[in-house]
Structures are given as structure tokens and as C-alpha cells.
Amino acid sequence: xxxxxxxxxxxxxxxxxxxxxxxxxxxxxxxxxxxxxxxxxxxxxxxxxxxxxxxxxxxxxxxxxxxxxxxxxxxxxxxxxxxxxxxxxxxxxxxxxxxxxxxxxxxxxxxxxxxxxxxxxxxxxxxxxxxxxxxxxxxxxxxxxxx
Length: 147
Hints:
Blueprint: E1 2-6, H1 14-20, H2 24-30, E2 35-41, E3 43-52, E4 57-65, H3 74-86, E5 92-97, H4 101-109, E6 113-118, H5 121-125, E7 130-132, E8 135-137, E9 140-146
Parallel strand pairs: 4-5
Antiparallel strand pairs: 1-2, 2-3, 3-4, 5-9, 6-9, 7-8
């Protein structure tokens, strides 16, 4: 297994990034200036994008694993890698997600704790209703992790 920082042609990973953020123009807001990491185990399994917020905080903007590889630890491995990678530069990592129990539980299992909520984020920023399964995403739930 290897994790690579991707510096060129980041859009080649768009199909995977769209699994976690299904509107391309939203991805275009953070992909060019964010750090993209790709996890390979023979072939590509997962990607994530991290952006600086300020001198003490960075944000995990996107993390996605192909459906057939979910539940095998690739996302957790990627979060452990980036947490270690950024701990010298930042004190805190944020991640924002929809209010779905499975995803919130995943992040909490990776050491994140609930931080705050941005009301109506999904309804205000996306051009169509967003769903995770049968749950409509309305508010953005932010979690934070001390690095």
C-alpha cells in the first residue's frame, strides 16, 4: 500500500472525488489550491483533499473510497496518514459532512469530535437536493481533531 501526494492533473481523480462531493463546481473551489493524496493498494482505492484554513487549522475537504473498497480501512488509513503529515504544520484538522449517523460515526472513530454546525449549507450551496441514502443533507456538521 502506498499514499502519494498528487501535484499535477488532479482532475483525473474527479470520478472518485464526486463520490464525496457530487457537484463539480464545488470541488473546483478547493481542488486547485488543496493538497490531493491518493491511496493505492495495487490500484487506486481512495483519495482526499486537504486545505489550509489559517496558520493553526487545516480542513479535510473531501475523502472518498470506491464503493467496492469501503469498509476495508482505506479511508481510516488515509486519515491517519494526513493527520501525521500535517501535525507539524497545524494544531487542528476540521472536516465537514452531512448529518448522517454512519459518516459521523466513521469520523468520530478516527478521532474527530463534533465542533459546530453551518445551517442550510447544502440547501444554500448546491443546485439540487443532496441525499445520503434516504437522508436529505441540509446542515453541514463540522468535526475537529487535535493534531
